[in-house]
Amino acid sequence: MAAKPKLTPEQWAAVRKRWEDDSRDGYAWLVDELALPVSGPAVRKVSLRDGWKKSGTGASEKPAPTPKVSKVSENLAKVSETIRETMPETMHEETLQNARQEVGRPTLYRKEYAEQAYKLCLLGMTDADMAVFFEVSESTINLWKIEYPEFSESITQGKGVADAAVAEALYKSATGAHFIKEDRAVSDGCGGTKIVTMEKQLPPESRAQSFWLKNRQPQQWRDKVEVNASAKLDQETLAMIETQFVARMAAAHERQRAVLIERGLLIDHDDNE
Questions:
Q1: Could you report the per-residue pLDDT of 135-144, keeping only the tens digit for each?
Q2: Paired residues of 199 in beta bridges
Q3: N or C: the chain end with fewer CB closer than 10 Å?
């Protein structure tokens, strides 16, 4: 069984008044403008049940007789209206519907959120982090980007500035362009000391250099170098290698035999027996 619409009687009364005071037909526009947590078909069902009427018709008037139409025409009309009101025509409409389902209440956006989003992006926050900060879902953050251009621009600029600042700091670390100030006690020439502020240059960091080069020129500075060791040898090359191996082994054997004879550990004729 379908769940009942999540609106109080007072809210339904306000929705009804808005619909009756407007000249537009249908219910999709009503759901969008009021950010209702119910679908268009649900509003239509309530309007038919309670007898909603556009302004200009008497509330106590009896409904006009319904013209007789064939069952096929009636079913086609219902299907067409249901599809039009329930299926999102664009990604924008789909995002709106998702946000309404998750939040379940009118938008919580405030004008000051644009400046706050800019500062949060400077701190390195992602969209998911900002959703936690504003106490909304991540899909609501995406909805605000669509509905409020200033909010989207603030996020884009904030992330751009933050990324540029990090890139600049990384570059300075890699090239040794960072300087720090230190206070040191030095002799004043009169037997005492004085505090002097000195500027010290930090040496380049090898990790920053490696990270920068791997990202800028990954083909030349990657850690793993692939070596193709598979080489095909023809029969002539294999025969030459075998001949050289046999010759070197024979020479090594002769050197070993000469050493043993010299040390008296082997008699010359013993090797021939």
A1: 999 999 999 9
A2: 181
A3: N
The sign of the torsion formed by the CA atoms of 122, 128, 129, 131 equals positive
CB environment 224-244: b (16+ within 10 A), e (fewer): eeeeeeeeeeeeeeeeeeeee
- Burial (Cβ within 10 Å: 0-12, 13-18, ≥19) of residue 127: middle
pTM higher than the cut 0.70: no
**Element containing residue 154 per DSSP (H, E):** helix 149-175
DSSP label at residue 69: -
CA dihedral defined by 43, 45, 48, 52, rounded to 10 degrees?
A: -10
Pair of tokens at residue 45: 């069902």
Residue whose pair of structure tokens reads 């009021």 in the numeric block: 34
- Asked whether 137 and 130 are in contact (CB, 8 A), the reply is no
